Amino acid sequence: MSTALIIEQLLNGLQFGVMLFLMAAGLTLIFGVMGLINLAHGSFYMIGAFACAAVAAATGSFWIGLAASLAAAAAAGTLVEVAVIRRLYDRDHLDQVLATFALILIFSEATRWLFGSFPLYLDIPPVLAGAVALPGGAHYQLYRLAIIGIGVLVAVGLYYLISRTRLGMRIRAGESDREMIAALGVDIGTLYTMVFALGAALAGLAGALVGALQSVQVGMGEPVLILAFVVIVIGGIGSIKGALVGAVLVGLTDTLGRFLLPKLFTVFLGPADGATTGAALASMLIYIVMALILAFRPKGLFPATA
Amino acid sequence: MSRERAINLLLAALLLAMPLAALALGELFYITLATRMAILALAAVGLNFALGLGGLVSFGHAAFFGIGGYVAGILSSHAFNQTPMFSWPFEFFGSDQMPTLWLAAMLISALVALPIGAISLRTAGVYFIMITLAFAQMIYYFAISWPAYGGEDGLSIVVRNSFPGVNTAVPLTFFLVSYVLLLAALALFALVRDSRFGAALQAGRQNETRLAAVGIAPFRIRLAAFTISAAITGLAGALLADLNRFVSPSMLSWQMSGELIVLIILGGTGRLFGPVAGAMLFVLFEFVLGGLTERWQFFLGLILLGVVLFARGGLIGVLAGKARHG
Fold it and tell me: What backbone torsions phi and psi does residue A79 show, to the nearest 5 degrees?
């Protein structure tokens, strides 16, 4: 097991974590500000990926596709917020779960209707094709490094938006006391729509970026959605910082677990049993980590104070 | 109450009449459809202990449904192949007797539910929803990556397991077995709901602080309710495995957890016969819409959305008016 391989796996974990952060940031923001649990967040991820793949295929440019994915996911988010989600803020979580579950069915079938059942493929843009040499003699895909870079940029941008701008101030105020900021004359309805569209756009961005690494197909959003839930539960629901820490933790744990556990168990149980036991355990590892964290910190690592 | 009770009796009679009519008309397929309704209703009655009485929105009950199914599948595959499941402290060759399988399914579901409930119930609200979902995913991925019992491909039950004294291979007999179990679970639900335990559970849903103030710790009664709930859903899983003669990880999937919640809400939250009404409607939708269009899930989504937004209280709520107590 060379250093190069370990560095590569670490970077893979980081890239996975960054992608989870893009999903989890939107989810945790929507929950923190509106108190809404949104299962349909995975659908925005799927919409972003499909929009990017379709537009990139039509125009030949990945970058126009990427812009289209942001626009499509934000538009879908706005539409859904105005038509459905708005009626759910005052309902209990059970109604929210059910309504957004219904939205998943609607979005998935509608996408299948439009694009058929076959997966679409998206090529890595030529500028980012190829690999870079890393210390230790490893080569790493440039595109994956770019995803990590974009994730860091989004994290910094979100931090700036929330702590330094007027909109961010309103979002934070909305988190702590929605009646009060409504009384102060802030149009809370528009604010909610904007937050929801922002979260949807981030999910769409994640979908488009990952679309170039794997096939674009219906149902791709839900496994990621569930991992994003694990992330925000670990991080503390409503906390962007928690989402970042949780996402990197989950990304690294999952990737390194799948890489190391089969090797580790091979030492104890022999190659045949060891590999299957290790693989089975690795697929459960992040949930075990989550259970352990919650057993000691039921509100997550960075509980929101509101 | 009397109007709701009349509707309940009507639903029970309707579910029983369906396979009898199917038999008279020679349309055996409808007996399978009715059996599916009864089994899904049983699973949802199980979830209703946690969700309806305790207000515990478990988004992971597919775990127990699937565990029940796998227990039945694994035990009967060992009995069929005559391979020992374990040889210490005694040789155990599985079983193909339904009562044994049911007991094992309930017991193991309950044993898994105990630690999951103990960790999940430390949290509340959205955390509880997401954690139960995450635990179910953990078991789902375990079932997929563990190759001994079929992994991703699932596990077949070659011959339907038997029940002493009757021939379960006859569709109507198997329906009646499922139907009687459903009625028994409903009776247990009514019994628990009106007991001291049930009163405490419902009080905890309505106001946790007051319940604690009268000296009852909500955690323990909730854990008990969660465990009972898992056991009954596990029993339904064992029955579904026998109906399909097949178990696969899809029984453990998050969509299945979602569907179980859908059954309860479609029928009416907090109602005794809500899960029955919901399961009958759901299977009917699946069958009718599925026959009309390949895209039936799209329309199912629209219907669900309509129910949540405009018809709160589900089918029984629409027919029988508001529940007496929220």
Answer: -60, -50
Domain count, chain A: 1
Among chain A residues, the shortest Cα distance to B116 is held by A291
- The answer to whether position A84 is within a domain reads yes
A97, amino acid identity: V
Give the three-class secondary structure for A141: strand
Per-residue pLDDT tens digits for A136-171: 777 888 999 999 999 999 999 998 998 899 988 888
Contact B309 A98 (CB under 8 A): no
Contacts of A31 in chain B (CB under 8 A): 126
User: For an interface test with B, which of A28, A30, A101 has the most B Cβ atoms less than 10 Å from its Cβ?
Assistant: A101
Q: What does the domain layout of chain B look like in residue ranges?
A: 2-320
**ipTM score assigned to the predicted complex:** 0.88
Angle between helices B296-310 and B274-292 (to 10 degrees): 140
Q: Is B269 helix (H, G, I), strand (E, B) or coil?
A: coil
B interface test, pick of A30, A43, A283 with most B CB neighbours within 10 Å: A283
Instruction: Answer for the pair B266, B79: CB distance below 8 angstroms, yes or no.
Output: no
Domain with A34, as residue range(s), is 12-218
Locate B22 and state its tokens. 């199917």
Considering the domain boundaries, does residue A67 fall inside one? Answer: yes
CA A80/CA B201 separation, integer angstroms: 36
Pairing of strands B246-247, B155-156: antiparallel
Q: Which residues of B touch A287 (CB under 8 A)?
A: 134-135, 137-138, 141
**Beta pairing partners, A131:** A141
Q: Is A233 in contact with B127 (Cβ distance < 8 A)?
A: yes
Look at residue A208 and tell me if it is in a domain: yes
Cβ count near A165 (within 10 Å): 11
> Is residue A289 domain-resident?
no
The burial class, CB within 10 Å (0-12 / 13-18 / 19+), for B8 is buried
Each of the 306 residues of chain A gets a pLDDT tens digit; together they read 578 888 889 999 999 999 999 999 999 999 888 889 999 999 999 999 999 999 999 998 999 999 999 999 999 999 999 999 999 988 888 899 999 999 999 999 999 999 988 888 888 888 888 888 877 777 888 999 999 999 999 999 998 998 899 988 888 888 788 788 888 888 888 989 999 999 999 999 999 999 999 889 998 998 899 999 999 989 988 888 899 999 999 999 999 999 988 888 888 887 777 888 888 888 889 988 988 888 788 888 888 654
Cβ–Cβ of A284/B142 closer than 8 Å?
A: yes
A287–B138 CB contact, under 8 Å? yes
